[in-house]
Amino acid sequence: MKNHLSFLFLLCSLLLFSQKKVKDTITRRANIIYNQSGNSVSYKPETPPLIPIAGAPKPSFSYLWEFGDGTYSKAAEPKHNYKNKGTYTTRLTVTNNYDNGKPPATRPKKVVVNDILDKNFDEIASIANQKGFSLQKNCDPIPDQQMEVILSYQNLENYVTSGKIYLFYNETQFKDNNFELSSFRTYAGEREVKENTFAVANNIDKTNTYLTSNDNYLPIKKYRNTTTEEDLDASLAEAHKTFKNVSILEFDEANPQETRNVFYTFKTTPEMLKDTSATITMRGIYVPNRSFKNHKVKNLEMEIVTSHDPNKMGSNGSFMNYRLVRFKRVNFKTRFQNNGEGPARMIRLETDIPDMFDKKTFRIEGMYPECPICPKEEIPTTSCLDTIIKQKQIFFTFKNIYLPGSEQKNVKEKDSTKGFVKYSLKFNKDFHKVNTKSRTAIIFDKNEPIITNYATTRFLPGISIGAKAGYNFYPNLEKSTSYFAGFTISPYKSYRFYWQAELINSKNDYNSNTTITNGFTTTANGVRQATRTTSTSSYSNFNNEIPLLIRYNINNYIGIGAGIQANINASQKEERYTKIETFETEKPDSPIIKTQEISVSGSKTFTNFKSGLLFDLTLGFARIGPSLGGRYVMNFKENFNYVQVYGIWKF
Questions:
Q1: In angstroms, rounded to a whole number, what is the distance separating the alpha carbons of residues 163 and 168?
Q2: For position 92, what pLDDT does the model report?
Q3: Predicted confidence (pLDDT) per residue in 216-233, tens digit
Q4: Which has the closest alpha carbon to 544: 572, 566, 567, 563?
């Protein structure tokens, strides 16, 4: 009986364990529900429950419907009229906003159209107001998740054209790839092509550049919205320097004013730069006619996030080269969305400004809703943006505007409920290499403020090479002279703590202590005579020292450090001198009757390994430039403690 009970207990335990494991691995799913009448199809999503985040606004879903004929919609429950008979694959991408779970996965659904009953066909919307070329995304990237990018192009010529479209991704400034292109879908016969060789531009405009993240400074044009360019070779060469990967499609016979969409599915990699305010970029190039060099360029900027939050702050100053940013501008962007049931008439953004930035260089780069700057000392009666600069903050206030709420009745396009302010700043004249973070409080009308994530600025360590030379004092050695020269390597212009490694070559000359030995000798006649033997050794060596220390800058002019040091004699010459004096009698003060001198020399390599501790002080320009220093080296081997004085210049 006991055996049966044990078996039942074990079986129940296994069942409970297996049930729990299945529950933990369940994937959230959203289903496509539709109702069809001929060529008219009404779609509706079936979504899982939302998981609220404590303290965050009410969670919600946003949608991207791809109808399988080249059109799309961002409405929650769209209705679509197909133009032709056929079988269409509808796809749905659901993004969870202010939600603690993962985005729901969906499966495509086939829709068969056999009858054309409704002649009001849904055409692809014109993008002429964007110069015939646009890039948009369904969400900002989260590491190890999926996102969609829509590339739209329009033939603005009055004749049929055949051209190319390029989509560049994975910036070279980042070590790891941020994206993997899972698939792309075309609906107008676009075909993928490969290009193995690209022209190299000799004269690329270097006036407007992004902040680079390494010492290989790459000039990049700062494309604002969609720009029209003429030198295709230069644009392609520039893009290939900036990005690692590209997808190239050719298209044929685009009719005048015809708009087409291409859909790309990207998987963000787990190695994606995990900085929740970092700005990353994709770039599209649209060549309307393959026979000409005219083309359009569009940058798609994205902030890396950890959750889909429409109210967020980002910066392109994530990993900056400290040597190159002195006169550069750092861009900041605060996005917001009205999630209310009614329109917002006033939106206030209270944004932190780190001390290292010069508020006098503040400049607005863009905004939505688009409106003029409010007049000073006047009560505005029309829509405008008011800016107030305080000691540690800048206040942006949209006045007399109308921004619909996402829960407002008859609001179908959630993008219309979003806005942003983009601004830039330069650094102060004397700014330190310090990471910063700032965030924004967003206030809609008189509601409670919504606090964004932190937007950070970070600097790469950089490399500083220093030239060093000086003199060593050995207090326990006779007639010592010691000169040295070498170089140091450390992070460039660190603010407080930093490491430093050195390679020092020194030339040392010194004598050992003189020893005198008294003795006696007996001649053949039996006469005892006194002897005195004097021994002296002199050394000349070339020494290699490798100090490794941690340093701390007290201020711009004083630095201290401590560490360990190892050294070895790369080559050493030793000369022994012996003098033997013989006296007339056994008394040492009697006359010297004979003197004998013996000199022996020899050399050795890589001998006499020593190690010890060091303590260091510098006065001058502690972070970069010239300074004077003193160091005490306490060797673990006897008689080799010494004091070092030196001059150093860090570059």
A1: 17
A2: 96
A3: 333 445 555 677 788 899
A4: 567
Please state the φ and ψ torsions of residue 237, each to the nearest 5 degrees: -60, -40
Q: Is-cis flag, bond preceding 369, omega within 30?
A: yes
Terminal CA-CA length for the chain: 84
Instruction: Tell which residue, 422, 420, 400, 421, has the closest CA to residue 343.
Output: 400
Q: Please, are residues 248 and 194 in contact by the beta-carbon 8 Å criterion?
A: yes
Within 8 A by CB and 6+ apart from 439, the residues are 313, 351, 352, 451, 452, 453, 454, 455
Both structure tokens of 572: 């050493």
Q: What are phi and psi of 17, to 5 degrees?
A: -65, -45
Q: With H, G, I as helix, E, B as strand and everything else as coil, classify residue 241.
A: helix
Residue 552 neighbours by CB under 8 Å, 6+ apart: 496, 497, 559, 560, 561
Burial class (CB in 10 A: 0-12, 13-18, 19+), 437: middle
Residue 424 identity: S
Give the model's confidence band at 5: pLDDT under 50 very low, under 70 low, under 90 confident, else very high: very low
Q: What is the mean pLDDT of residues 527-554?
A: 90
pTM exceeds 0.70 for this model: no
pLDDT beyond 70 at 15: no
Q: What is the pLDDT of residues 175-223, one digit of tens each?
A: 889 999 999 999 999 999 987 654 433 333 433 333 433 333 334 455 5
3-state secondary structure of 415: helix
Strands 72-73, 515-522: pairing is unpaired
Instruction: Work out the burial of residue 179: count CB atoms within 10 Å of its CB; fewer than 13 is exposed, 13-18 middle, 19 or more buried.
Output: buried
pLDDT bracket for residue 545 (50, 70, 90): very high
251 C-beta neighbours (distance < 10 Å), count = 23
Distance from the Cα of residue 263 to its chain's centroid: 28
Nearest to 28 by CA among 94, 89, 109, 110: 94
CA 311 – CA 347 distance, rounded (Å): 12
Domains, the chain: 26-123 (2.60.40.10), 126-308 (2.60.40.1510), 319-454 (2.60.40), 464-650 (2.40.160)
- Pick from 297, 287, 228: nearest CA to 252: 287
- Residue partners of 412: CB distance under 8 A and separation at least 6: 75, 76
584 against 651, higher pLDDT = 651
